[in-house]
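Intended use. Records like the one below are meant for learning the mapping from a protein sequence to its folded structure. Do not use them to infer anything beyond what is encoded.
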Amino acid sequence: MGINLSSIEGYVSNHLRLFILSVAALIIIAGIAALSVFFIAVRGTEQVMVPDITGKELTAALLELQVKELYPRLQLRYSQTSSDRGLILEQEPRPGTIVKAGRRIRIVVSQGVLINKVDKFTGKNIDEVKMDLQTVYASSGSVPLITLKEPLMYEFSSENPGTILAQKPEAGTDISGPIVIEFVVSRGRENATVTVPQLTGLEITRALEVISDSNINFRFSEREKRGDEKGESVVYQTPSAGTVTSANSVVEITVTTPDNLDANEISGIYRYTIPPNPYPLEVRLEALLPTGERLRLITVNYSGGEFTVPYKLPIGSILVLAMLNREINREIIE
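Structure written out for the chain above:
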């Protein structure tokens, strides 16, 4: 039986064409699928708005970026003030820009002030300088660049009490590492005097205002009113008004108790012994009322010793005593 070669060739040729077409079709289908996946992925990437993180702390800024699925690229820079340390100074792209999730955001973070020389402290108030040392110089690193040698040295002078008279090292000294600075501070005039103000006859609230302005040392006591005396008023003082006395002298002041107290009120004399200071420091007594209101009773420069202030307040009020804005005593009156 003879073999028909032309039939075999036709068969092979047909199947080869079919195979080639199938492979080509598969390649085209795979390409289309790949392109579809690509465009779907591109179109599906979420678009987000860049948040405004300028001026915020680094931790808070990073959390905001994380929520938006944005990633930071950090840069550090020294700034002009220590209060900027750890805050975002700049960002790119700008706030409000629409970008795709996953975009990197350039943020510039403040390293604080670059300090390389000792500042001039003479002529400044020691209390303000102490605050600067705790913020500016301490924020320069984990170890403060400048620490204050204590106890301080004090001298009588014509400068206001608390004024820095001398410093060591001197201003302009290079800082190559942590240093200790020494200050000589003014006590004020050695024989400083004050004129005792007129307090007798004043209501207690007005007397406290006068005392705040005169900066005298004082001590309150109270008693029941007599005769035609008014309640809650100053009925006696010594030394008398107009007396010129040493700034360290104590003016004794007697006040009368209130005429009437509501059922929810209480009166008395607040007493607290403040450690002696080389010169008068600002002392503030406030009352936190049960309603949440804050009432200031007196603010005065006080050199130390027993601090006494009369009060009439709602029961449950809290008396808060602070020196140089630092709380030193708190007690509930009831």
